[in-house]
Every structure is written in C-alpha cells, then in structure tokens.
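Recap from last week: sequence in, structure out.
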Amino acid sequence: MTFPFDISATDGAARTGVLKTPRGDIRTPAFMPVGTAGTVKALTVDQVSQTGADIILGNTYHLMLRPGAERVKRLGGLHRFMRWNRPILTDSGGFQVMSLSNINKVTEEAVTFASHIDGSRHVLSPERSIDIQADLLGSDIVMQLDECVAYPAEEARARAAMELSARWAARSKAAFGSRDTQTLFGIQQGSTFEHLRRESAERLIEIGFGGYAIGGLAVGEGHQAMCDTLDFAAPMLPVERPRYLMGVGKPIDLVEAVARGVDMFDCVLPTRSGRHGQAWTWDGPINLKNARFAELDEPLDADSDCPASRDYSIAYLHHLVRAEEILGQVLLSWHNIAFFQALTAAMRAAIAEGRFEQFRRDFRARHLKD
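Predicted structure tokens:
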C-alpha cells in the first residue's frame, strides 16, 4: 500500500504536509524518536506521546536478537508489546549489522553476523528482514535491507554497496508483496558521489516504493558534506512521496535538510544526550554538569508544554545530573524529545506561513555560533 501523502504548503524546497496511515497521521516535517529495543530510552510511551510525536522508530536488529521477533509476534506484535498505538517505522537491521556485530560477512544472498550480545550466529537476508518487520513486529513503515558504507568511501566501494542495495531493494519489494495496511520504503545509497546517488534513485523509482529514504549519511562525513550531498540527492527522489533522511541528527541538521526538501528524520541524539546531561535548547545545547548552573532557578523552557522543560529548575536538573540520579536522565531525555518535536512543529508553521527562510537564518545564527 502507498500511504496518501498530502503536501499542504511549500517554501522553496521545504514542504509541509501529512502522511496518512491507518494508525494515524504523520505531520511532516516529522522527527521520529528512536525506540531501539521496544522503548524510547528512559521514557514511557505516554511521555513520548505528550511531546507531540506522531511516529516512533523500532530497531529490527536489536529486537530480533532480544526478545526475538517471533516472541514479539506471539505477544501481539510490537505496537501491543510496547503499548504504542500510533505508527511505527522499523529500520531493516542492516546498519546495525555492519556497525555493531563482531563479525559479519556480506554476500549476494544475505549478511551473516555474530550477535554483539552473546556471539550467536544469524543470517539476515532481504526476505528475512521483511518477514521480521512486516509479519512479526508488524510495523507500519517497513525499510528495505541495504548495505551502508562508512565515510570516506572509495568510489568503487560505494558503487558496490549501492548496486547490492538496489538488488536487495527489488528482492525486498518482491517479499513485501501487496499489503493493505503497511508500506515499504526504498533506500538511496551512493555515499557522496552524485552519479551514484542518481543511479540509485533511478533504480529505486523503477521498482516503486511508498517512500524513499536517503541512506549513507550521518556516518562521519560532517555537517557541510551532508548538506552538499543533500543538495543533489534529495531532488532526485519523487516529489510526491515522503523523503526520509536516516539517522539525522542535530537540530541544525534537521533545519538544513528540511530546507533541501526532506520530510522525515530519526536519531538517538535526544535521548543519548539526555542520559549524559546535555539539554538541547533554542540557543543550542547546554551541559547541565557545568557548575554555573548550580543556582539557576529557572526552567529550561518556561513556554514549553512539556513538564520536564517547564516545571523543573535548571539548578535542580544540574543537581540530579551531578548526583547521577536516574530522574535526571528521564527529565532531560523527555525535554530533548519535546524540543525536537517543538522544532519540527515550528518548521511546519514557518513553511505554512511562507517564512521558512527567515526561520532558517535565525536558527543558523543561534546554532552555528562558531
């Protein structure tokens, strides 16, 4: 099934709209909190929902290893298992296989790897990835299996991964078949090479997908190289379908990607930062461990709807972080997810009102101070 995607306004290349799924609308630009192992770390699903998130991401690699995708299926699927009744996008597991497993071997047929948990051996093929995501976990948006290479990559290596990913895209589409309540996204690869990105996009469009992801970025290339690549990579993808930039990123990355026509994002950054005492704000990140916050009797954001942002003083958050109290990790993770949702809401409003470029300039001035 191809979910309806209604673009309601554009401002330059930036656009805002709604991706309509059977489990609810996803307002774009959208940021998807990452629920790696069936949980957005440190938060309940009610807290995540209160931040304004329309969709979360689940991780195929982690869930297939623990508790096991078949077990999740027996327990009613991922939505019921974690008590989240809104849309879920699952990644294919390919990136984690390449980055986390101790040993992996990539062949035309599949990738064989050793679990980072207990060393057990597993095989992940395009067909097995689709089975796990669509049939066992029951996600709403399913991702094709692809091969992602780190940056920098030689052109020959990037081409080989792109071509394998394109072949796996066709196999993923065949395995996915026709479904009434789920959709499948293809993944563009090609590192920072424009001609490889173009070939990848053309092959994906020929196969046909419900949405198109931009993979192979946020792998060490840096902010400017990411932007330079998006300048040509994003416009290659169909304008009428959602574009998803995988694994990105910092707030400034989101703003610059939206300016280039990207609609969807995911990243572990908000919760990972929160667990390490960092809060994201409209003026950039702050480290709550710093002594200068010890007696600052004001909240992170008095105007926020999020209790973590609005109801606790920075001095108290500083104390929790310094004392290594679990509540500090909870409150900062909650605040950061709420901030990312507020950022995407602000971008949606700016695009709808035709003032996105001014919003972008103002945001850049605050977040690129160096």
